[in-house]
Amino acid sequence: xxxxxxxxWIYYPKQNKLVEDGRILxxxxxxxxxxxxNDSQAISASHDxxxxxxxxxxxxxxxxxxxxxxxxxxxxxxxxxxxxxxxxMWKYEPNMSASDAYWGSMLGIAExxxxxxxxxxxxxxxxxxxxxxxxxxxxxxxxxxxxxYDGNPEANSMEEAxxxxxxxxxxxxxxxNRLWIGFGPHAPYTVGQEWFTRIADEARKLGTSLxxxxxxTEREVQEALKKWGKRPVERMEEIGVLDTIQSAAxxxxxxxxxxxxxxxxxxxxxxxxxxxxxxxxxxxxxxxxLKSDVNVCxxxxxxxxxxKLDMIEEMAFEVLIHKGFGRDPTLIPSHEVxxxxxxxxxxxxxxxxxxxxxxxGTSADLTIINLDSIQTTPVxxxxxxxTYAIGRExxxxxxxxxxxxxxxxxxxxxxxxxxKEKAEKAIGNILDKTESExx
Length: 439
Fold this sequence. Notes:
- The chain is of the alpha/beta class.
- The chain has 2 domains: 3-59 and 356-407, Urease, subunit C, domain 1 (Roll); 61-348, Metal-dependent hydrolases (TIM Barrel, Alpha-Beta Barrel), CATH 3.20.20.140.
- The chain has 14 helices and 17 strands.
- The protein has helices at residues 82-92, 98-114, 127-137, 158-172, 193-206, 218-228, 232-238, 256-264, 273-278, 286-291, 311-326, 334-341, 382-388, 416-438; strands spanning 3-12, 17-27, 30-36, 48-59, 61-66, 117-122, 140-143, 146-147, 179-181, 184-185, 210-214, 245-250, 268-271, 296-298, 366-370, 395-400, 403-407.
- Strand 12, helix 8 and strand 13 form a beta-alpha-beta unit.
- Helix 7 (232-238) packs across helix 8 (256-264) and helix 12 (334-341) crosses helix 13 (382-388).
- The radius of gyration is 21 Å and the shape is globular.
């Protein structure tokens, strides 16, 4: 499908550039024109047309850290610290079936598409089922199957978990240039040195990367110091695996040396402020990371520790929490957080998969946001509205790889009635199994 979109504004976060009366022309899966309407090339009669006279076009958002099937456990364990939360979650997760994970993934994908998210970066179990959901829905994803066995519903050993990850890579990596597979050793405190080394060696062999958790709690750091005499990131450098890690979630309690190691190895920090606040883990020093030239991307974390897959809300929370805690209103300006949710996330994918730029010749991954609403009137500064005024209800269109996946409240590729019914049944099955084990 070839089509054009006329909008009141186009926003390019990488350059922090706003164009008024813009046009985006899409042919196949590529943007062939992006800029002022008056400068655009001739339009063919075969192009479908969409006119958003009060809309702003931006690159689609990337959710940089999720555990997608965990949506089935949303609201199950609230108001607990991380380690108590994990102890509770690991009682329920082993009772999740492959079918449950598929329908949970479909539910999560629908929620993301409706809020302008075009791609996600995931580390969880049942990646094969997530891959099926990604393939059928049209969204983009980088999936890193979790490799550890506490609470793992599809593996009873590290060997089995690792085999699942390798099988998923062979089956899905590179599918339609939308789906990519890495490896997900959960964290240094759950995966031993020998396994981290073995997984890293396999990643190098296959040309892929690792997605792990670093320094989410002070307890994690203190236990690392007690066990190894080094902090977690320092320990991973010592055993020689940092070069394979592309995605490091949380990174709340970092030393200056650890920050330098992340920069040196070009590791992207996946910042999840809402989830981190909800479990009382603390707040990553994002201003310091950015000043240290560390790539920071924005994510929601899993829905059982955040409860929403809403990147628009995450952006607003991010800018406000840092200004408040830092007592400095200049920290993380609006354009910076939009860049974290778009252009900076391009590093999470192979080159050319997602650019986060709306540049001509790049993949057509974008969202249209309506600014003709009560909460966005008047429109004095459209970029300000993207973080401080809009909600996900303002999203009118989500385009992934040149295909419209969400349009005016409808999902062209998804049957949301069936998805909700199957997801409700799935959580019922998980709860029933868990309760039966207690008796």
